[in-house]
Specification:
The protein is built from twelve helices and no strands. The chain is mainly α. It has a domain at 73-109 and 145-191 and 217-287: MetI-like fold (Orthogonal Bundle), CATH 1.10.3720. Helix 11 (246-255) packs antiparallel against helix 12. The termini are far apart.
């Protein structure tokens, strides 16, 4: 009777998380497109109107200086010099922001790793180490959960508008991102070298300095350089709240309809992005 029950028992069907995720994505995508097609205020219908493309063509012509009175700003050397100083401030803001985020993450990502705090590489599963682990993890979530623009709006009230306010806003936000990614790198490391140092009588500090940090540091530098590439593009958003750099000038020129000046600022942003991308590519090769 037992064998008969085992033979007639139906196999349990377990849902595949990958398929469930794909189905959920398709449902949400279809719902989003249905909302765009049905709702008249979504702006989807304006994509097929000739007036939209005419306005876009006029705006691009104003950026190129086709209807400008006098010489366009991007053909004036003194304008290049003035905006070049702002571009330097923007680059300095991004470097200072990554310095703040990098130093803070470097000092805190090791105790924020589970295997170092409470796992196999922990000296002892003590209550203070567990409390520090959850505190740092919560700090990572809090700092990366608030957008840079909101942090900049708060920081500007405490500090005078300028490069420092924007760098602090960008640094606080990227600290959470770098800390989380670096802590997960430590959790995925091969623990054999660290365990060998620990069993040979090394202290916890020596184990972290010689067994864990050398393995995690190249990936940490890679994440740091990648975030710098993102930050140089985000400085314009932070600059909109008077945090300095090209962003504040961009908002001013758009408000005063100085479109050739806006085009010059866009050219400077492109130069900065290309410069940072080439610099990080070279530094990543050195880190390997």
């Amino acid at each position: 009777m037992t064998l008969l029950k085992l033979a007639t028992r139906r196999p349990t069907i377990r849902p595949n998380p990958l398929w469930l995720s794909a189905v959920a994505f398709l449902v949400l995508a279809c719902a989003s497109w249905a909302y765009l097609l049905v709702d008249s205020g979504s702006g989807f219908r304006e994509l097929f109107q000739s007036e939209t493309y005419q306005q876009a063509s006029d705006f691009l012509g104003q950026l190129a200086g086709l209807d400008a009175e006098g010489t366009p700003a991007f053909l004036q050397w003194d304008k290049w010099m003035e905006t070049g100083a702002l571009a330097y401030d923007t680059l300095a803001m991004s470097v200072l922001a990554m310095g703040i985020a990098g130093v803070a993450a470097l000092l805190t990502f090791l105790p924020a790793a589970r295997n170092v705090a409470t796992g196999e590489l922990a000296s002892s599963a003590s209550l203070p180490s567990q409390a520090l682990y959850y505190l740092l993890r919560g700090l990572f979530i809090f700092s990366r959960g608030i957008p840079e623009l909101m942090i900049a709006m708060i920081v500007v009230f405490a500090f005078s508008p300028g490069i420092l306010a924007g760098a602090l806003a960008l640094g606080i936000h990227n600290y959470g991102i770098l800390g989380k990614l670096s802590a997960e790198v430590v959790e995925d490391l091969d623990p054999r070298s660290a365990r060998a140092l620990r069993t040979s009588g090394s202290s916890v500090f020596q184990m972290m300095a010689y067994g864990i940090l050398p393995q995690a540091l190249p990936q940490f530098l890679t994440y740091l350089l990648y975030r710098w590439e993102v930050v140089i593009r985000t400085t314009v958003v932070v600059g909109l709240v008077s945090a300095g750099g090209l962003g504040r000038e961009f908002l001013l020129d758009m408000s005063l309809f100085r479109y050739t000046d806006v085009a010059l600022l866009l050219i400077w942003y492109l130069i900065l992005v290309v410069f940072v991308d080439l610099t990080t590519m070279f530094m990543r090769r050195l880190a390997r």
